[in-house]
Design a protein that fits this description.
The chain is an alpha/beta fold and 424 residues long. Bound molecules: uridine-diphosphate-2(N-acetylglucosaminyl) butyric acid (EPU).
Length: 424
């Protein structure tokens, strides 16, 4: 086990490049299963979740090579259809092989990933969507078991909530179904648009991407392709908030300001200067931030994945903020760790009231998920003294070389063995 030792007090200054999005790359890797042959993906982030997905695709029969941020996936004519628990439990996103396997093999057995430290994370919309497409879907012995021996048939599907994962699974299943599928109340995240682009390059017929109604005309066969992963808006947002909190000045290349409009408006309201540049954006701040209220919502709302970081900013802001979490019921769990640094936060249901303090004070903390980890690191950057962040394998799942990048921007951070922890 390793931990980060963060010494607070430095302003982040300089330039860093954001790589492709975790939450796109993992799905693009799954989409490669839809076509026999070699698919090449570029700008795939070097994170452990990509390693787990690589292992899963290999288990299904694909040959996967990684060279830096380029991933080639050779998919044979016949692939396996079972995703075992020991792989799925490490990576909840592996549920996104369900749609591709079902539509390609007529069968899919994917272990139920279970909940995690941010909430229960149901799969009912994934399953009922596939049932609408004509599959038999049930849960047996801890697996989602889906069967469609005669193939899938297009249908009209209405999602109760614009679920990212359900939209992706239904979309990937529908591209090879007979006839037309309409997905209403679909998710609109840039990662959905990214996968639509890739699927269209593979031969799919999709209209309405980026809107809440997707029309998919099924095709007989898909072909392999080459695709560059969309830049990671959550990592871009994390650096933007870090720049503002530390009263720094950071240029984020390859970051797409248009994918972060509400976040950047929120930072501007907190007092930051935000400039859009030809290949990215620049965020600078010289004063203490002013408190900002935030409500998390599906895209284009404020992303839940940046909620811990904006709470960290509010913890040292001037004033009191109300943060409302609408996506995950347990995402406020990490505030107990933030309280160890002296943050004043009161949680009531899905609201958190954050009373800003002039400073925080370093302490040992434990992270329970990727984004809570990033929030705690950001808080450590502005705390007096040392903050030891344990269980950083969670952070490694989503942030390529976070310590290296922080150090390049002038932060006093090291990664070191954690003598106190032997498990998570
Ligand atoms: N939900 C259901 N039933 C379903 C599907 C979802 O109840 O059938 C609920 C979930 O329990 C959750 C909410 O709907 O409360 C949102 O879930 P959604 O399906 O939109 O999220 P996801 O696909 O499971 C992805 C990202 C998350 C990100 C969310 C929301 C990946 C691998 N994960 O999850 O990212 O928070 O969308 O934007 O794409 C992260 O990167 O740290 C992370 C958690």
């Amino acid at each position: 086990m390793e931990r980060f030792r963060v010494v607070g007090g430095s302003s982040l200054r300089g330039s860093i490049r954001v790589s492709g999005a975790k939450n796109s790359a993992l799905k693009l890797m799954a989409a490669a299963l839809l076509a026999e042959g070699r698919t090449t993906l570029y700008d795939v982030p070097s994170i452990t979740d990509v390693e787990y997905m690589t292992e899963l695709l290999r288990r299904l029969g694909a040959e996967v090579e990684r060279d830096g941020t380029t991933v080639t996936i050779d998919v044979p004519a016949k692939i396996g259809h079972a995703a075992p628990y020991e792989l799925v439990r490490r990576l909840r996103a592996s549920i996104c092989v369900l749609g591709p396997l079902l539509t390609r093999c007529g069968a899919a057995d994917v272990a139920l990933p279970g909940g995690d430290a941010i909430g229960s994370r149901g799969l009912d919309m994934h399953m009922s969507g596939l049932v609408k497409l004509g599959a038999e879907v049930g849960v047996e012995h801890g697996f989602v078991v889906a069967r469609a021996p005669d193939g899938l048939t297009g249908a009209n599907i209405w999602l109760d909530f614009p679920s990212v994962g359900a939209t992706e699974n239904i979309l990937m299943a529908a591209v090879l179904a007979k006839g037309t599928t309409v997905i209403d109340n679909a998710a609109r995240e840039p990662e959905i648009v990214d996968i639509c682009h890739m699927l269209i390059d593979m031969g799919a017929r999709i209209e309405g991407m980026g809107t809440s109604t997707l029309h998919v005309e099924g095709v007989e066969q898909m072909r392999p392709t080459e695709h560059v992963t969309v830049p990671d808006r959550i990592v871009t947002g994390t650096w933007s908030i870090a720049a503002a909190m530390t009263r720094g000045d950071v240029t984020i290349t390859n970051g797409k300001a248009e994918h972060l409009e509400i976040v950047l408006d929120t930072l501007t309201a907190a007092g930051a200067e935000v400039h859009t540049e030809p290949d990215g954006l620049r965020v600078a701040m010289s004063e203490r931030p002013t408190s900002v209220d935030v409500v998390t919502l599906p895209y284009p709302g404020f992303p839940t994945d940046l909620q811990p970081m904006i709470i960290a900013l509010n913890a040292i802001a001037d004033g009191t903020a109300m943060i409302t979490e609408n996506v995950y019921e347990a995402r406020f769990m990490f505030v107990n760790e933030l309280a160890r640094l002296g943050a004043e936060i009161r949680v009531d249901g899905h609201h958190a009231i954050v009373r800003g303090r002039p400073t925080l004070s370093g302490a040992p903390v434990v992270t329970t998920d990727i984004r809570a980890g990033a929030g705690l690191v950001l808080a450590g950057l502005v705390a007096e003294g040392e903050t030891l962040v344990s269980a950083v394998h969670h952070i490694d799942r989503g942030y390529p070389d976070l310590v290296g990048q922080l150090r390049r921007l002038g932060a006093a951070v090291v990664r070191e063995p954690d003598p106190d922890r032997f498990d998570d």
